Structure formats: C-alpha cells, structure tokens
Amino acid sequence: MIRLANNDDLPILVNIWLSASREAHAFIPDEFWLSQAEAMRDQYLPGAETYVVCDAAGTPVGFLSLVEDSLAALFVDPTHQGKGIGSALLRQAQSLRKGLGLCVYVNNDRAQKFYRRHGFKPVEERLDERTGERELFMQWSTT
Q1: I want to staple 62 with a disulfide (CB 3.0 to 4.6 A). Which of 56, 85, 108, 121 is the partner?
Q2: What pLDDT shows up at residue 10?
Q3: Which of 70, 60, 53, 80 is nearest to 104 (CA)?
C-alpha cells in the first residue's frame, strides 16, 4: 500500500533514510549523514510531497519525496530492499508527473542502473559541493 506520509511517519522515515544512505553511500563519511538527520526531519521531509510504502503492520518500509518535478528522495529500508518496493514507489512518482529529474552519486552504480531501468537518462555530471562527490543528474519524461 502506498499512501501520503504524515507527521507520525517522520522519525521512521529519517531512520530509513539514514540506514539506506549509509549502506548505499559508504564512500561518504558517516558523520555527513548524521549531520543531516535533523534537517531531513525538520525541513526536507515536511517540505516535500512524500509517499510511503508500509508493511503488513502499517509501518513504513520505504518512501519517496517529490519537490515539484524533482525526485528528491527514494529510500527503502535495507532489510526490505530487493522486493520491488523501490520500483513501486518510482512508478507512483511517474504516475504523478509528466517528467522527473533526480541526482544520483556517480559511485552509486546500483542506483544508476535502477533509474536507467525505469527510463531515466543521464543529462550531466556535476559536483555535490556538500560531499565533494560527483553526481549524475538524470531525467525521465513521458514524451
């Protein structure tokens, strides 16, 4: 089941984001992710259109966040990855927009392949000044 997130979900979503970020981005120091957790909870998630996928008990296990036509976040709890949750969330985002853009770290091959499978095309490579890592801007469109 995919539903809009609510304020009660925020602590769980931050935990999903933190654990998935640490696992997918081991090339970025852990201190960076920890330093961003408060802003994720207080600014980024409340400022986005966020959808969650819940397990049978109703607990979120993955989420996506949209800011206008930007896929700002898509994270699945590492213990629930590989079950189609990320694909379901991405299809939800694609059903809500005619086009989407996103950034993915160049060193995150798994995510790049995932987005390519779902029709995203690389547009440009640039530097994420917060982390010093190269990132790839990708776009998807219905046209």
Answers
A1: 85
A2: 96
A3: 70
pLDDT in tens, 22-40: 999 999 999 999 999 999 9
Full-prediction pTM beyond 0.70?
yes
Torsion, Cα of 19, 11, 113, 83 (10° steps): 90
Q: Give me the phi and psi of 51, to 5 degrees please.
A: -120, 145
- Residues forming a β-bridge with 76: 62
Phi, psi for 122 (deg, rounded to 5): -70, 140
User: Across all residues in the chain, what is the average pLDDT?
Assistant: 96
Report the distance separating Cα 139 and Cα 131, nearest Å.
22
